[in-house]
């Protein structure tokens, strides 16, 4: 019985090593991509890249993204794409979907499967939430 399953252990080991190696490579690519950018808190992010009426919303959306990814977002900019620049698809296939679902729930908006809605960058999400919510400050801090 033991001999029949002896091939499984090397396969599992190779899979684990491959997973670690690809994660290290992804983290290095992200570090290189963000290296020359300043570190910004959520509030600084909102104030620097968005109009005053959207700054708090942008900070809250970035905070929500941080709950769904396992890397430092202090150097993220609004035009970084989820799939290419942030490599969220490689980090976990469900991370982007979970993030968008959380934003939809938190702000009572519709981002996924909505006609004409683009949600490829953090900036896209902030602008779309602001548009659907009518830029109402009441949506902040729910």
In short:
The protein is mainly α and 142 residues long. The protein has six helices and no strands.
Which helices and strands occur, and which strands form pairs?
Elements: H1 8-34, H2 42-49, H3 52-66, H4 88-91, H5 95-107, H6 122-133
Question: Which key terms come to mind for this protein?
Answer:
142 residues
Structural class: mainly alpha
The CATH architecture term of the largest domain is Orthogonal Bundle
- Strand tally is 0
Number of domains: 2
Principal-axis shape equals elongated
* Percent strand: under 5%
CATH class of the largest domain: Mainly Alpha
Distance between the termini: 57 Å
Find the CATH topology of the largest domain.
Non-ribosomal Peptide Synthetase Peptidyl Carrier Protein, Chain A
Write the H/E string, N to C: HHHHHH
Arithmetic mean pLDDT = 82
> How would you sum up the major sheet?
none
- Report helical residue fraction: 55-70%
Query: So how many helices?
Result: 6
Ranges where pLDDT stays below 50 over 5 or more residues in a row are: 135-142
Radius of gyration: 19 Å
Describe what you observe in this structure.
With 142 residues, the chain is an all-alpha fold. It folds into two domains: 36 residues; 102 residues, Non-ribosomal Peptide Synthetase Peptidyl Carrier Protein, Chain A (Orthogonal Bundle), CATH 1.10.1200. 56% of the residues lie in helices and 0% in strands. It contains six helices and no strands. Helix 2 packs across helix 3. The protein is elongated, with a radius of gyration of 19 Å. 23% of the residues are buried. The C terminus is likely disordered.
